[in-house]
């Protein structure tokens, strides 16, 4: 665990102060007044050092999302990244390596706020086609040297639909960079791909194209872009159609070592009459800045821009921006099939559970005693279970019944007999069972009533309760 820079700086100052104090103690051990004066002087020097020194702390926070080895096309849904606020040199990176086709749907990145040198990277490496549909990057604000870097490497096509990047502010030396590097396909842009882009205070839109010769930069003539940079090999006359749709009011900065060609002259066809010489030299290549205005005008006439523009317009009819929506539809079908399978499995389990519950209820209701309700059945089973756990005795109270005798005792059929006592004129229920478990008394010989009385023993209360339970529930 490394300490924070503030703690580290404080520790260094304290260590330095302690070392100097020990040195003073060693030099003048008996001269405490001089030592106190020197310590006081050292404290003052440290305060001046802290007040005058300018220390910059660079704290970084990282959020990196990496996806590798995708076998299917990927569709980034709506509001995948929403309300991202970056501050104080923070880094957010979304990276895909070795994938298939990739589609940014509407509002994939929305409400992004950057400041204080924060960075946002969208990097796609070793993939096929990458599509930015309408409003893929929407409502993005950059300030204080922040950076948004969209990088496509070793891929095929990079395609921007109309309004792909919409409502974006690039202020305070912030940069939006689009890198198309070592790719086999083409960089294609719709005419309104960059819409409502606000630039100010040295904000830049940079296209870095390396070893990817097939690209077309197209902008609406009413676009609010102020300045772009094209970092590529030297632009030749064959690259005229690639930049022919860049409006004349946009400041275009090229590499300084670009060779002058009709393409270069076309980019600055109006700017050299509007800009100051110093400003023009900072934008144009070396070959262009050394030419006089008369030489530039003569060369422009030789290039015959009108004929070249007509040829480019015929080629533009062949350029079509098609965003395959089937990528998202296939993903939706896969997700829908998975959800349907899960739902079917849940329904099957619910049906099976209902069948089991129904069969159980039918069995309970149509058992031996159909008049019993479900609650009485449960209560009966519960008391029967408790009754099985209790000990039972024979007529000899000291002799416990064996398990076999208990099983035989449980299997006996018992009946409740209602008897009438003529003397007391009372009716009492009695248990009809073997005479072994009870004592038979005949107190009234005339009425010949036989009364069953429980045999008294030390377990009299338990046996009496058991007998009552058995009478009530059997």
Compile the SSE list and pairings.
Elements: H1 5-27, H2 32-52, E1 62-68, E2 74-76, E3 81-86, E4 91-97, E5 102-104, E6 109-114, E7 119-125, E8 130-132, E9 137-142, E10 147-153, E11 158-160, E12 165-171, E13 175-181, E14 187-189, E15 194-200, E16 204-210, E17 227-231, H3 240-243, E18 251-253, H4 262-267, H5 271-274, H6 277-283, H7 286-289, H8 293-303, H9 305-316, H10 326-365, H11 374-389, H12 403-411, E19 415-421, E20 426-432, E21 438-441, E22 451-454, H13 460-473
Parallel strand pairs: 1-4, 2-5, 3-6, 4-7, 5-8, 6-9, 7-10, 8-11, 9-12, 10-13, 11-14, 12-15, 13-16, 16-17, 17-18
Antiparallel strand pairs: 19-20, 21-22
Helix pairs in contact: 1-2, 11-13
Report on this model:
- The chain is an alpha/beta fold.
- The chain folds into four domains: 5-52; 62-316, no CATH class; 326-366; 374-473, no CATH class.
- It is built from 13 helices and 22 strands.
- The strands form five sheets. It has an eight-stranded parallel beta sheet, with no helix packed on it. It has a five-stranded parallel beta sheet with strand order 2-5-8-11-14.
- A hairpin with a 4-residue loop joins strand 19 and strand 20 (426-432).
Summarize the structure.
The protein has 474 residues and is of the alpha/beta class.
């Amino acid at each position: 665990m490394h300490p924070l820079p503030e703690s580290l700086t404080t520790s260094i100052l304290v260590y330095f102060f302690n070392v100097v104090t020990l040195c003073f103690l060693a030099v003048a051990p008996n001269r405490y007044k001089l030592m106190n004066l020197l310590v006081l002087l050292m404290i003052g020097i440290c305060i001046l050092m802290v007040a005058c020194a300018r220390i910059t702390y660079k704290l970084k926070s990282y959020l990196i999302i990496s996806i590798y080895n995708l076998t299917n096309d990927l569709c980034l849904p709506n509001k995948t990244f929403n309300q991202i606020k970056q501050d104080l040199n923070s880094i957010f990176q979304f990276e895909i390596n070795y994938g298939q086709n990739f589609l940014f749907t509407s509002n994939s990145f929305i409400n992004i706020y950057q400041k204080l040198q924060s960075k946002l990277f969208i990097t796609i490496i070793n993939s096929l086609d990458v599509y930015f549909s309408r409003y893929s990057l929407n409502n993005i604000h950059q300030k204080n040297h922040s950076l948004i870097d969209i990088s496509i490497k070793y891929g095929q096509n990079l395609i921007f639909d109309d309004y792909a990047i919409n409502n974006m502010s690039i202020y305070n030396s912030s940069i939006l960079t689009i890198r198309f590097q070592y790719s086999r396909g083409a960089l294609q842009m719709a005419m309104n791909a960059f819409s409502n882009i606000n630039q100010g205070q040295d904000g830049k839109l940079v296209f870095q194209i390396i070893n990817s010769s097939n690209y077309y930069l197209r902008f609406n003539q009413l676009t609010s872009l102020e300045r772009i940079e094209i970092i590529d090999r030297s632009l030749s006359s064959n690259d005229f159609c690639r930049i022919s749709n860049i409006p004349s009011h946009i400041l275009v900065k090229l590499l300084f070592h670009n060779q002058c060609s009709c393409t270069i002259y076309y980019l600055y066809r109006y700017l050299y009459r509007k800009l100051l010489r110093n400003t023009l030299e900072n934008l144009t290549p070396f070959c262009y800045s050394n030419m006089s205005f008369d030489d530039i005008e003569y060369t422009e006439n030789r290039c015959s821009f009108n004929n070249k523009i007509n040829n480019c317009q015929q080629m533009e009819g062949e350029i079509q921006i098609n965003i395959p929506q089937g990528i998202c539809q296939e993903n939706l079908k896969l997700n829908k099939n998975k959800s349907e399978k899960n739902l079917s499995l849940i329904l099957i389990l619910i049906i099976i559970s209902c069948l089991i519950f129904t069969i159980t209820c039918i069995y309970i209701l149509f058992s031996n005693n159909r008049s019993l309700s479900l609650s009485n059945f449960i209560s009966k089973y519960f008391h029967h279970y408790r009754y099985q756990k209790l000990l039972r005795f024979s007529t000899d109270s000291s002799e416990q019944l064996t398990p076999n005798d208990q099983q035989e005792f449980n299997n006996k059929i018992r009946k409740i007999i209602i008897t009438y006592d003529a003397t007391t004129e009372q009716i009492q229920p009695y248990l009809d069972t073997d005479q072994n478990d009870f004592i038979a008394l005949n107190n009234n010989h005339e009425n010949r009533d036989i009364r069953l009385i429980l045999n008294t023993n030390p377990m009299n209360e338990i046996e009496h309760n058991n007998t009552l339970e058995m009478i009530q529930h059997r």
